[in-house]
Here is the input.
Amino acid sequence: MPTGSKDNPGLGVYKGVDEPRNPFRGENWIRPAGLIRAYERLRQLDGAHPLVITQAPIGTVAQLSPYRKAFDITGADVYPVSYPPGVHTRTGNRDISVVGDVTRKMIRAAGAKPIWMTLQIAWSGVAPSKQRPGVVPRFPTLQAERFMAYQAIVSGARGLVFFGGHLTQVAAPRDAAAGWNWTFWDEVLRPLVAELTSAAVAPALVAPNAKRVVKPSTPDVELIARDDGTFLYVIAVRRKGTTNVVAFTGLPKKIASGEVLHEYVQKPLPPPIGAGKQVFRSVGVANGRFEDWFAPHDARVYRFRK
Here is the structure.
């Protein structure tokens, strides 16, 4: 109860009813009115901690919008990595880029309230059971998890949650004994979390959206620009298409170069190898424009000193 837990230093947020508008509930879906009453009562008991409601990815904006008065933060869980792909989201897009589609839908459904997206470690659709013994386990790779995280951010998410590490029925024996999928943590999630929370990238994730409009030369590249007063950041992902050079325009004309965060080169360039130090790869800027290679599911964070 909030009266007993609101002062607990371990409390970050309250989690509301999970997926209240999931169509799988049939006629028993949870109506907004009761959740709104519960939210208002919670605010009376504890006005300091926000309440989060996570929706299923297959609700429509019209179905989800009536819940706006029932939460401080909302979002959706979206688990596109499975055999066959895309069975969780049930849309025409079976690619992992459906994460961006669902995030943008949740932005519209939430109005002005913030979005946290729940991304995949594992879920019931990749875990065999007596009812579905033919299910084949499948997990996101580091590249896929990294793309989904950055695409959610580019699409408007201000928080990320990762679900499914507790599903030990599809974990290695030592992880099952430990109660959590630590192998996935070591191979995928820890490197991603380390990058997102690094001294270079973290400021971009909490910075306000930039007023300046930065545009890519191809529509399959999605981006968001952030500005913390010291740096202009451009976070860009490519959802599909070919592998080629993409141009970006709209930067301040005075900027001459930028850095690609967490992509390293030796400075000075070799040869000889090892005769310099490792620094972030640079990109040149001329007249507010720069170019870089992009392949499908690439994700990059650029930093430009203002």
